[in-house]
Amino acid sequence: MDLNLTAKTALITGASMGIGAHVAETLAAEGVHLHLTARSAQKLETLKTKIAKTTDVSVTLHPLDLTSEGAPEALATAICNVDILVNNAGAIPSGDLWDVDDAAWRKGFDLKVFGYINMSRLFYTKMKEAGGGVIINIIGNGGEVLDRDYIAGAMGNISLMGFTRALGGYALDDNMRVVGINPGPVNTDRIYNMLRKWAEKDLGNPERYMELADGYPLGRPAHCAEISDLVAFLASERAGYTTGTVYTVDGGISARTSII
After folding, report:
1. Which of 69, 132, 138, 206 could disulfide-pair with 175, CB 3.0 to 4.6 Å?
2. Is 203 a residue whose pLDDT tops 60?
3. Between 225-235 and 18-29, two packed helices, what is the crossing angle to 10 degrees?
4. Beta-carbon neighbour count of residue 110 at 10 Å?
């Protein structure tokens, strides 16, 4: 399937590792030029080198902290043209109401929740004025499962789901589209760090974390490509009538409900 993404330009936040890095590689393979931002300049350079070995797309790096004052505005000024914005930066901490203190809760929201909002505000306007574009918010199935042991993430993710639907509802009037993806557990370092934390709390030993992973659908987290391929499709004209909606990719975890 030809997605007709060649020569498009994408900005990916949180691009240095995990899902963000895989999205960068997937879009580059489709011929998309990249602007990549994250805090670690070294990790961004490593990713750029890897992409350069298999593609000839341009890759521009913007190492910065999006929570620092004026950083989103500086990024919008530095990037003249963008067709696709992938909001991916941020990880809200796991834990129950007493595990996550006020400072950690606010720090997680500043980067992810308000980060997505601020980036969307700036780049929606930029893309609309240039003729249109796509915003893809990588959110998380914590906004559907509503687990008390991920209470800050549940609150933050469900807020971003509402934000995505509200902004995307009339976006086609501006030749824009806004969509979201709710990954469940994905095969990245972050999920294993979370599993270790839960294994220590629930099983008394962080090294028993794989016992928790055995309960996932198919006995594994999602492959990164199972998320990044969906990003590429949603960014393309093949999804041209899709906006104001959120896709959940969690192997059915959030659908495992009971009447009891």
Report:
1. 132
2. yes
3. 50
4. 14
